[in-house]
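User: Could you write out the 3D structure of this protein bound to D-malate? I've included everything you need below.
Assistant: Certainly. Input first, then the structure.
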Amino acid sequence: MMMRASTAERSTSALECASGLSSTLKCGSLLSVGSLTLDDVSAILQLATQLENEDPLERAKRLAKRRIALLFYEASTRTRTSFELAAKGLGADTTLVSNLSSSIEKGETLKDTGLTLRALGAEAIILRHPSSGAPWLLERETGLPVLNAGDGMHEHPSQALLDLRTMMRHLRPGVEGVNAETLAGVTVVVTGDILHSRVARSNMLLLPRLGARVILCGPEKLLPEVAAEAGPGIEVERDLEHAMRQAQVVMMLRIQAERLAGLHLDLEEYKSGYQLTEARLAACAPQASVMHPGPIVRGLELTGEVADGPQSLILEQVHHGVAIRMALVLRALTLRGLTPHGEGRPA
Ligand code: MLT
């Protein structure tokens, strides 16, 4: 059973975070997947399973009446709903502040909105923001644990963790812990608008550390050649069918129309080279799993038949989002003051 922090403990932790005395890890924030050790990743995967299997009434005592704010400056269905269900599943009270129905519309800054939420009793903030780096600023200004729910074109760490859980269930069933060899021999092809994708970036930061080979695939406009230098284990391939022949997982990404300004992408040309169709899947990767972080655009990056087909794990990914985010929310409110080596990690 989790210990509940006293009010004094909570404000001390907030001050420690604000003054920079604690590392991001100690604050319980998750800003970048790169800040997690493989032991942290294992602990999150294990905690997610433990929480998922717990009796819902018992689980709801863990963070009963604790306050968590969801601060969303961009549209979201899956991420927002699953974070909210995760926090509520642990018994927390949640409040949603979005850019469309709050003082943000009147010009209030991220800092002032964050301080307002803290004054209202929020103990952690889940932030989605169009600017890369916004979660770091919010953590610094409020001293609260911040969970990055997507910052601009930068990172989406909880998505990478739920993607990992989904992959592990299929490729390494029964395994919850990870190490540098866990995904050895696995090739993940990521295809689509990689240039604008925070999902691609977080997966690129995580998967090679577990031994996976990541092949990025797309036209030059959406995938600059320099991406191959992003790190070890990452390659660039322009020919989707060639890439797919090597894949155990094909991860499709949406074309982010809202971020395409000035790119002049010919969508018909794009579809002929990169759309995932039943015919392509049958010919090049009949055993591979198909993943997509959503939202999916049927008829563009993939066909409806592929999205609904037997190789699609798209809805499973959505499902895993709740367990992973329960683990992250619990970690955010209980990890403060712990050492990065895991003493006192939530049981
Ligand atoms: C995101 O928020 O990055 C989504 O999950 C992917 C997308 O918007 O296409």
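The beta strands are 67-72, 93-98, 124-129, 146-151, 187-191, 213-217, 234-237, 249-252, 289-291.
User: Perfect, thank you.
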